[in-house]
Amino acid sequence: MTNEDNFDPNELIKDGSDATFMADVVEASKTVPVIVDFWAPWCGPCRQLGPALEKVVQKAAGKVRMVKINVDENPGISGQLQVRSIPAVFAFKDGKPVDGFAGALPTSQLQSFVDKLTGDMDVDKEVQQLVDRANKSLELGDMGGAAQDFAAALGLNDKSPQALAGMARVYLANSDLQGAKSVLAMVAEEDLNDASVKGAQQALELAQNAPSDDELGSLLDAVKNNPTDWQARYALAEALSGTGKIEAAIEELFVILEADLNWNDQAARKMLLKLFDVAGATSEVTASGRRRLSSLLFN
Fold it and tell me: Assuming Cys at both sites, which of 5, 90, 118, 175 could form a disulfide with 63, CB separation 3.0 to 4.6 Å?
C-alpha cells in the first residue's frame, strides 16, 4: 500500500489552524509530504497562487497534501516560521520544513516544486533546462529572466557550478563585482575547472581590471588615429572586454587577425580564445567567432 492510499481524496487539501497544525502538518508529513500555504483574504497574489497550487497538488493524486492557513486568523504558526510576507509556502516532510518559497509562481515552477517534494523530478535534467534557458536570457540581455532561472536552478541544486557561474555573470552584468566574487566563492573545489566557472572567473578578472572612461577614450582615439597600431587595438580589445563589451572586443581582435594571424606571438588569437570562454561555449558570440577563426586558419 502506498502513502497516498492512506488518505481520503477529500483530505488532500484542507484549511488548517494554529490549533490543528501539529496534527495536520507535522504528524501528517511523517507519512506523506505536506505543503502549507500561508494566505489572507486581502492578499491579491494569494488568490492567484492558491488555486494554481491546489491544481498541482490534486494532480499529484495523493503523493502530497496541502494545508491552507489564514494568517489573520492564525498568527501563531506564521510567527514561529517567521513569515514576513504572503503568500508564503512551506513544504514539510518527516515532521520538518524542507523547502519553501514566497510570492506567486507560474504553474511550471509550482509543478517543479511539487515534483521535487514527491521525488518525481529528474533534478539534474530540470537544473540543466533552467540553466540553458537562463543562459539564453543572459545572451539576450534579459538579466531579470536569467537571474530568476539561475535562482530556480540553485533552489534545486545549490552546488550546481553552471548555475553559480551564471548567477555570477548576472552580477557582473549589473556591475556588482563583489556579488559575483561571493557567488564564485561558493563553487566546490572539485568544480573549479568546470568550463562555465572558469569563464565566469575570467570575466570577473577582466572586470576587475576595467579601464576608466578616460583610459577607454584614449585607446579609442589612438586606434582611430592609427588603425594599424595593433598594440593599441589589442589594448582596446582588453579594455572593452573589461567593461563587458565582449562582442566589440572580439571585433577588434579580428581586425588584427585578418591582417596578421601570428602578430605578437599570436597574442590576439590567444585573447580571442579566452573571450570565447568568457562568452560561454554555447553562446552565439562564441559559435560565430569560432567559425570566423576557422575560416582564417584554414583558408
Answer: 118
Query: 263: number of CA atoms within 13 Å, CB side?
Result: 20
Which pLDDT does position 31 carry in this prediction? Answer: 92
pLDDT for residue 10? 64
> How many Cα neighbours within 13 Å face the side chain of 244?
13
Query: Which CATH number describes the domain made up of 123-208?
Result: 1.25.40.10
Shortest CA distance to 278 belongs to which of 252, 223, 240? 240
Q: Where would I find the H helices in the chain?
A: 21, 44-59, 75-80, 107-118, 123-140, 143-156, 161-173, 177-184, 195-208, 213-225, 230-242, 246-259, 263-279, 284-298
Point out the catalytic residue in the list 46, 130, 146, 278.
Answer: 46
| CATH level 3 topology of 3-118 | Glutaredoxin (3.40.30)
Neighbouring CB atoms inside 10 A of 217's CB total 12
Q: In whole angstroms, what is the distance from residue 57 CA to residue 32 CA?
A: 12
- Measured in degrees and rounded to the nearest 5, phi and psi for residue 67 equal -125, 125
User: Is 221 considered catalytic here?
Assistant: no
Structural contact between residues 37 and 69, judged by C-beta atoms closer than 8 angstroms: yes
Catalytic residue among 28, 43, 223, 256: 43
What is the fold of 213-298?
A: 1.25.40
> Computed over its alpha carbons, how large is the radius of gyration of the chain?
26
Does the annotation count 46 as an active-site position?
Answer: yes
The per-residue pLDDT for range 159-190, each reduced to its tens digit, is 999 999 999 999 998 889 999 999 999 999 99
